[in-house]
Structure to design on (682 residues):
């Protein structure tokens, strides 16, 4: 239910901001693209709209804040929260011999995560006595109304009406105070209005996540600070990737240059390449345990085949004219390797390295989810067991940011080291 | 030269091609597509071993590529990861010459080819014509005895091509190298070929040989003036006729085969 409302709000913001930007923002850029009349179907005329990107990110935080009652979002934008405070209702008791009496139940609803304190009320007169109930927001309470009444359900007494509305075993009453039902045994089940906000245990507001980042960065979680957890994950990825590249690139070159090497390693590489590294986790744990060795070997295996195939593709991609030209300029085999084949394969190797880094980063988190004593994956896995949703969210966001950062760094390195890519 | 095909048959790419080149000669080779021009050049360069016959240069057999036979390709043979100057000085550097040994030569070639202001540019920043000038300079910087050109101007537009033809003639006269030039263009073959070889296809063989005065006339002169020479138009028509006949024969045969 809340999911559909969130989706609706999201789509509404998408459309409204699109129209608002179309009307309000004049196209001030006057580059050659603005003169193109055919843009639908011309991919080169479509550039990413920066305003849309900014609004998109803001919208995610806005929806997040709205449906969690965040302090970062002004109060009037909050989705209706759950009922909190004091309320009361009356129930009508009918004894086995047909006598009726009304009594009032006073309910104190405490906010999420706050303790409930029992309190007493004056029981009043009559067969049915007034009750006091303390409960948490968005929960339902089963009210054993007959605890203090003169007749109990065992004597045949039952509730026949709530606030004057008839109620039976199969009816549900929706009143302003909340929702009422009778349990199988005749007790009153009361649910105050739960509103449209998410409980922090499902989705904490953004400021909780941020304060958790600060807290864990300073004080740490499970004997390790946040940086230590992330550092361990990064260290494994980098060591595993470098080991994979150091072996995979020469292997790929050898496969591209020698028929014996290609014939020997092709079955192995072609078989291992489609095996997802995640499928190797159990075997790696059996062989090497859950320590660093196993993780690094897993990442080494994840990157090895990708780098070998990239290097082989780089060798096959060399234009034969370049090799012929170098030979007729007097280059030796070593010089052909050093000055023609290696630089020519750099673009392919960089593409492979970007893929391998992405796979390694995903694999290390998954491996840590399975078993580890430090690491980003282990941090969110343990947090989820204690329902610390804010740590889980923080971990996911940081893992995403780091993965994105790695990719940006690789692209920067690529554009500096391989400026000729795609331009010859 | 015979190629054995995977399906068991074979193609006679070249048959009875016998040539004798004098030092400093400029030979252009012309023929319809599929007549084995490129195969011939690859054999001379040493990239292919002939099934019969031999290539002899400077008194020794040719068995593989060597710096004594420089090659200029149509395109795509420059090293994008080096700037213009490093491309041109590639040969001397591969032979471990010291900069002092080749600097003057490389700078002179950059001047002659008009690349002096572009020597620090990357290859992909140059136009197609400039890239071919780099390829020429790179080949000459290595001081080969024979220069093999495989349609070096084929990828250029008509205007650039004409300018480049003048440059090729100028460099030929200046360096005195022996050049074998393969081309599709009859005009180019006439203008640049001191000797012109027309080849016929299936099997690839020498059809006719000409000795022409136009290359000599064209050195340092306006090539358009050369084209006004009375013999030029006549020879051109004669060769075109010859090639048209061959092309039609190929087409006809292809239609019959279908």
């Amino acid at each position: 239910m809340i999911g559909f409302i969130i989706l609706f709000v999201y789509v509404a913001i998408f459309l409204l901001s699109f129209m608002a930007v179309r009307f309000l923002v004049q196209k001030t850029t006057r580059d050659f693209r603005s003169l193109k009349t055919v843009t639908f179907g011309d991919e080169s005329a479509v550039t990413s709209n920066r305003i849309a990107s900014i609004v998109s990110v803001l919208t995610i935080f806005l929806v997040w804040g709205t449906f969690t009652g965040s302090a970062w979002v002004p109060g009037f934008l909050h989705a209706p929260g759950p009922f909190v405070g004091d309320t009361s209702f009356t129930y009508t008791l009918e004894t086995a011999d047909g006598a009726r009496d009304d009594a009032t139940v006073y309910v104190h609803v405490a906010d999420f995560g706050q303790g409930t304190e029992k309190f007493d009320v004056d029981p009043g007169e009559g067969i049915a006595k007034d009750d006091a109930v303390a409960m948490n927001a968005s929960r339902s309470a089963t009210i054993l109304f007959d605890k203090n009444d003169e007749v109990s359900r065992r004597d045949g007494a039952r509730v026949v009406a709530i606030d004057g509305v008839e109620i039976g075993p199969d009816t549900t009453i929706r009143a302003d105070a909340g929702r009422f039902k009778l349990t199988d045994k005749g007790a009153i089940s009361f649910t105050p209005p739960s509103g449209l906000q998410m409980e922090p245990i499902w989705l904490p507001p953004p400021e909780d996540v941020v304060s958790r980042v600060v807290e864990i960065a300073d004080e740490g979680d499970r004997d390790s600070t946040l940086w230590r957890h992330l550092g361990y994950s990064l260290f494994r990825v980098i060591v595993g990737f470098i080991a994979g590249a150091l072996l995979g690139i020469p292997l790929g070159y050898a496969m591209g240059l020698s028929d014996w090497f290609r014939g020997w390693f092709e079955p192995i590489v072609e078989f291992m390449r489609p095996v997802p590294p995640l499928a190797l986790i159990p075997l790696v744990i059996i062989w090497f345990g859950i320590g660093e060795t196993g993780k690094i070997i897993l990442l080494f295996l994840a990157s090895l085949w990708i780098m070998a195939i990239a290097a082989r593709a780089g060798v096959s991609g060399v234009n034969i004219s370049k090799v012929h030209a170098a030979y007729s300029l007097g280059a030796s085999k070593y010089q052909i390797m050093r000055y023609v084949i290696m630089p020519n394969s750099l673009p392919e190797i960089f593409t492979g390295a970007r893929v391998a880094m992405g796979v390694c980063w995903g694999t290390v988190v998954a491996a840590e989810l399975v078993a580890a004593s430090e690491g980003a994956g282990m941090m969110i896995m343990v947090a989820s067991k204690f329902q610390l949703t804010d740590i889980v969210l923080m971990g996911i966001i940081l893992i995403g940011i780091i993965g994105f950062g790695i990719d940006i760094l690789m692209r920067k390195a690529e554009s500096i080291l391989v400026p000729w890519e795609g331009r010859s | 030269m015979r190629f054995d095909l995977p399906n068991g048959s074979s193609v006679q790419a070249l048959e009875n091609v016998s040539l004798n080149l004098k030092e400093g000669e400029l030979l252009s080779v012309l023929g319809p597509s599929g007549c084995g021009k490129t195969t011939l050049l690859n054999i001379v360069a040493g990239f292919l071993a002939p099934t019969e016959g031999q290539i002899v240069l400077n008194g020794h057999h040719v068995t593989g590529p060597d710096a004594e036979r420089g090659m200029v390709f149509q395109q795509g043979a420059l090293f994008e990861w080096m700037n213009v100057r490093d491309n041109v000085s590639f040969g001397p550097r591969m032979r471990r010459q010291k900069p002092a040994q080749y600097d003057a030569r490389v700078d002179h070639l950059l001047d002659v080819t008009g690349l002096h202001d572009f020597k620090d540019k990357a290859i992909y920043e140059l136009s197609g014509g400039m890239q071919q000038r780099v390829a020429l300079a790179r080949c000459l910087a290595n001081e080969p005895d024979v220069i093999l050109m495989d349609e070096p101007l084929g990828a250029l537009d008509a205007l650039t091509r004409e300018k480049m033809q003048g440059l090729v003639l100028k460099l030929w006269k200046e360096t005195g190298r022996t050049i074998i030039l393969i081309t599709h263009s009859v005009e180019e073959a006439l203008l640049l070929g001191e000797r012109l070889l027309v080849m016929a296809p299936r099997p690839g063989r020498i059809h006719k040989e000409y000795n022409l005065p136009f290359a000599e006339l064209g050195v340092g002169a306006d090539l358009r003036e050369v084209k006004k020479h009375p013999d030029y138009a006549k020879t051109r028509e004669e060769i075109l006729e010859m090639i048209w006949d061959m092309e039609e024969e190929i087409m006809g045969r292809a239609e019959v085969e279908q």
User: Anything to note?
Assistant: The mean pLDDT of chain B is 79.
